[in-house]
Amino acid sequence: MAETPNLDLIHPLKLFDIAKNEERFLYTSAPMVRYSKLAFRQTVYAYNTDLCWTPMVLAKEFNRNHFARDSDFTISTNSPQPPTIVQFGANSPQELARASTLVIPFSNGVDLNCGCPQSWACSETLGAALMEKRELVRDMVVETRDHLRRDGWGVGKEKDINNPKGRSVSVKIRVHKDLRRTIDFINTVLGPDQDRHIDWLTIHPRTRSTPSSTPINLEALELLTSTFGDRVPILLSGDVFALNALPFTSPLLAPAPTLTQTLSATTNSSSSTTPSKNPPLPAAYHIPKLAGLMSARALLCNPALYAGHDACPWAAVETFLSNAARAPLPYKLVLHHLSEMCGPGMGPNKAALLNKQVRTGLMACGNMFDLIDFLDGLRELRRDGREQGVVGI
Predict the structure, then answer these.
(1) pLDDT band at 240, cuts 50/70/90?
(2) Which positions fall inside the DUS-like FMN-binding domain (predicted)?
(3) Is residue 132's pLDDT more than 50?
């Protein structure tokens, strides 16, 4: 990374403004360990994702090991480079600031992970463990912004939105069981309104111990966005499975399904021709001050989620493979991506591109050559099936 490529990097806050002017959410892809690599980022970017995150990068190792720098952060210089935020795991202001100075010429901004609940991260005072260290988090983002400013980068937030060297500093958090502690945390990290410490905030409304199978805490999301949404742009991370099945209403959404309809879709219950004796209930929560959405597992299954597809289209598989050929991934990782894309999605539509038997054959491919031959054969079968009126494989 000694030579800076000629990258046209837009300030992320400008992307927020563009989405707001289009009366929609900002669409983002989450930092996923192993999965948020360049080829996948390019794929979701081709399907309306506005802003992509890298997997979490350990700042200390990134600073000290050139192998970590070569493997943990990859960009494209001759094909579409999605607007990218580099997420760091750090517990030291100096380590985060130094790592940020290394990646900032090649990225749109840096983000501090205060949400990873994995035990190894928390034991190192990383991720969600930082939710107990609000002053340390504040010091880390302030030190990072100061270092970037001294290096000549535009970190004045809205003041640098049109600056070619404008970059962002943000934080991704979870919530506490006692939301008063979360409010104290955000107030400390956010700082004064006239010169806040972060450009935006991503909230995952689960606690450190809440499993992902438990729905997000919409009451917490409503409270936190109503408290801070006018002071700083806020992204939601968690349970973004389909644009037509979000569990809340917003002025930036089409009319939401009723709670009765949502529960019916979730449980896959069959529709009844008998009218309900009770009138349908309105959606329980209205979140008017939320600025954007961040998806992880659902986007992994359906990279075209933000393009309005409720299930993964075959074209997204081909787009991913084309990107993986230019930005190679370990073969087992390619297989995992394909198994996710070709299986049932996370939203109400559980249709799969390939049935279980065919997916088993897919996973049995031993290398990229076998895989491409296998998929070429499937492409022919799909074409012949369409010609003969056959649905699916």
Answers:
(1) very high
(2) 30-244
(3) yes
Bridge partners for 111 per DSSP: 87, 170
Residue-number span of the structural domain to which 120 is assigned: 12-262+284-310
Say if residues 117 and 127 touch (Cβ distance below 8 Å): yes
User: 371 and 292: one domain?
Assistant: no
**Contacts of 303 by beta carbon, 8 Å cutoff, 6+ apart:** 40, 43, 44, 46, 47, 49, 312, 316, 319, 320, 341
Q: What is the DSSP letter of 103?
A: H
Residue 223 lies in a domain: yes
Cβ(199)–Cβ(109) below 8 Å: yes
156-188 residue pLDDT tens: 999 999 999 999 999 999 999 999 999 999 999
pLDDT recorded at residue 80: 76
**pTM to 2 decimal places:** 0.88
Indicate whether 150 and 93 sit together in one domain: yes
Q: How many CB atoms lie within 10 A of CB 72?
A: 19
Mean pLDDT of the chain: 88
- What pLDDT digit, counting tens, does each position of 67-104 carry? 777 777 888 877 778 999 999 999 999 999 999 999 99
What is the length of the chain? 393
The catalytic site residues sit at 116
Q: Are 222 and 362 in the same domain? A: no
- What is the separation of C-alpha 15 from the centre of its chain, rounded to a whole number of angstroms? 15
Domain co-membership, 366 together with 298: no
* Cα–Cα distance measured from residue 175 to residue 25, given in angstroms and rounded to the nearest whole number: 22
- Would you say residue 206 lies in a domain? yes
Helices 368-387 and 356-363, interaxial angle, to 10°?
A: 150
